[in-house]
Design brief:
The complex is a heterodimer.
Chain A lengths: L2 H9 L9 H34 L9 H10 L1 H33 L3 H16 L2 H12 L3 H25 L3 H9 L4 H38 L5 H10 L3 H29 L8
Chain B lengths: L2 E9 L5 E10 L4 E5 L6 H8 L7 E6 L13 E3 L11 H5 L1 H5 L4 H9 L20 H14 L4 E5 L7 H18 L2 E6 L2 H7 L2 E5 L6 E6 L14 H24 L1
Parallel strand pairs in B: 3-7, 3-8, 5-6, 6-7
Antiparallel strand pairs in B: 1-2, 1-4, 8-9
Helix pairs in contact in B: 7-8
Classes of the chains: A mainly alpha, B alpha/beta.
């Protein structure tokens, strides 16, 4: 973490003398936010330039300015649809977190159970969701349940697998030491195994956060009357391409926000974790 | 005898014989060391004495009898690696044994705080292990072992990973702690000087399969300071212990 401002300082020809803490913190944020922001601005400029030069039609490939206009034009519909989709994502993701952690803890509580259940966890991911989703709608109807199930089904897997790996990664010598201190299996789980698994769990949560948005759109395509996924279909049918792009921008923003939220919770929950050090 | 092992042997699946017919004894309050070449099964022996590993043959008696529920949880054990948990502060790491024996968090904290000065950890109570030096980490691990309150402590090369100067200082410090508490300590090391300086008695183990080759009593006066290591008596004891070890090392090289 601290290498970023250092490298930036070197790259800018700066000196490496210790600076006041506040200055360092500010340059840390700048160093982290500025590069991706510049890349983003660059990409948008290239995009705008391409559309202007090639003269491609708006209905085929809208320019960023047109997408921006669509964002403003559709703001109220986008906002209410985003609310629907976001609540689906949060609920489905929440179910996946609970199911994933409980399943991982149960599965890794015994070798036999792990051997018996783990392959079926993998099989659950081999089931093509596009094939399964219409059937789920058939079972549950068009309320929020099929979306919840589809999102949870897609997102629980990285959470469960990472947590299982994390529980497994517990230092066996530490487990031995705790046993000599009189710890039983539940105490070992609480004191050593779960904390060891936390960084792994957060890796799974980040991967799942990205999947959750895609899963929500798909779930809405199969059976829904509202939400950003439905909006994409509607705009697509009207060949309102700038509006489709605007919807995608909102979806991407939700994904990024979810990803960032996981990162913030991670830093608060496991301040002791220093990846790569 | 506080702790007595008779005819201990350990054969691992696959046929590797780590230890063969090892008998050792520790009197109450005695400081005993085991030295031996690497791979002589010292750590295996400690794991068996700690109750973590079942011996293939032999018996272990604590206070004259084999404990009915096994040795696990009755003997203090400090493995080679400090095994401090990164998610706990220094103090929370040190009190984990108390926590497991049902002492409340507040009471455990209080007891640990009373000891941090003696263990050279004052001011670092609420730091994470990653912020401690190697010597401090080792002392924190020792504090965890001491706080657990067992009468017999098994220490597996506690200073093995430290630099030479820190090691020396830690030896003197450990002696001070031991002289105040008079716990029964069995220390495993490959460092003959460390063994002589600290111990009342030293067992020398031979290479695989590990057995007790000789036993040497260290009749040096206590309390001891590092100046003792410069005396002729100390050098003589060292030589006496090194001779069988060197033979072992030569034999191992010749056999290879």
């Amino acid at each position: 973490m601290s290498t970023t401002p250092t490298r930036l300082a070197l790259a800018l020809g700066g000196r490496l003398e210790p600076r006041p803490r506040a200055a360092r913190a500010r340059s840390g944020i700048v160093g982290r936010v500025l590069p991706p922001l510049l890349v983003g601005v660059g990409l948008v400029l290239v995009w705008q330039g391409y559309v202007a030069v090639s003269g491609v039609r708006e209905g085929v490939f809208p320019s960023p300015v047109e997408v921006g206009r669509a964002l403003v034009r559709d703001r109220s519909l986008l906002l209410s649809s985003a609310g629907t989709t976001l609540s689906e994502i949060l609920l489905g993701y929440g179910v996946a977190i609970v199911v994933g952690i409980v399943l991982a803890t149960a599965v890794s509580s015994s070798r036999l159970l792990e051997r018996a259940v783990y392959p079926w966890l993998v099989v659950s991911q081999m089931v093509p969701i596009p094939a399964l989703a219409p059937v789920v709608v058939l079972w549950t109807g068009f309320d929020i349940r099929p979306k919840l199930i589809v999102i949870a089904l897609v997102t629980f897997f990285p959470i469960a697998v990472n947590t299982i790996d994390g529980l497994r990664a517990t230092d066996s010598e530490l487990v031995g030491l705790l046993r000599t201190l009189g710890a039983g299996r539940w105490q070992i789980l609480r004191i050593a195994r779960l904390p060891t698994a936390l960084p792994y769990l957060f890796s799974g949560l980040r991967v799942s956060a990205a999947f959750a948005v895609i899963a929500a759109v798909f779930a809405e395509w199969v059976g829904s009357t509202s939400g950003l996924g439905v909006l994409i279909l509607d705009y697509g049918n009207q060949t309102a391409t700038p509006d489709v792009f605007a919807t995608v921008v909102v979806l991407a923003a939700i994904g990024v926000a979810l990803f960032a939220a996981v990162g913030i919770v991670e830093r608060l929950a496991i301040p002791w974790w220093q990846p790569g050090e | 005898m506080k702790l007595a092992a008779t005819g201990l042997a350990k054969r691992f699946p696959g046929g590797i014989e780590a230890i063969s017919d090892v008998s050792i004894e520790l009197a109450d309050g005695e400081f005993v060391s085991i030295v031996g070449p690497s791979g002589c099964g010292k750590s295996t022996l400690l794991a068996m004495l700690a109750g973590l590993l079942a011996p293939s043959a032999g018996e272990i008696a604590l206070d004259g009898a084999a404990p009915p529920g096994g040795l696990l949880g009755r003997v203090g054990y400090m493995p080679q690696r400090d095994l401090l948990m990164a998610w706990r502060t220094t103090l929370a790491n040190a009190t984990v044994g108390l926590e497991l024996s049902g002492v409340t968090r507040a009471a455990a904290r209080e007891r640990a705080l009373a000891e941090v000065g003696r263990f050279g950890l004052a001011g670092f109570e609420d730091r994470r292990p990653s912020e401690l030096s190697g010597g401090m980490r080792q002392r924190a691990a020792l504090l965890r072992t001491f706080l657990a309150g067992r009468e017999v402590l098994l220490l597996d090369e506690p200073f093995g990973a430290l630099d030479a100067l820190t090691r020396e200082a830690m030896r003197e410090w450990l002696l001070g702690v031991w002289e105040a508490d008079r716990k029964t300590i069995l220390l495993v090391t490959h460092d003959v000087e460390e063994a002589v300086f600290l111990s009342d008695r030293v067992y020398v183990m031979s290479g695989r399969p590990g057995r007790v080759a000789t036993e040497v009593a260290v009749a040096l006066p206590r309390p001891r300071t590092l100046e003792l290591t410069a005396t002729a008596e100390f050098a003589q004891l060292k030589a006496q212990l090194l001779a069988p070890l060197r033979e072992e090392a030569r034999a191992a090289l010749g056999a290879a």
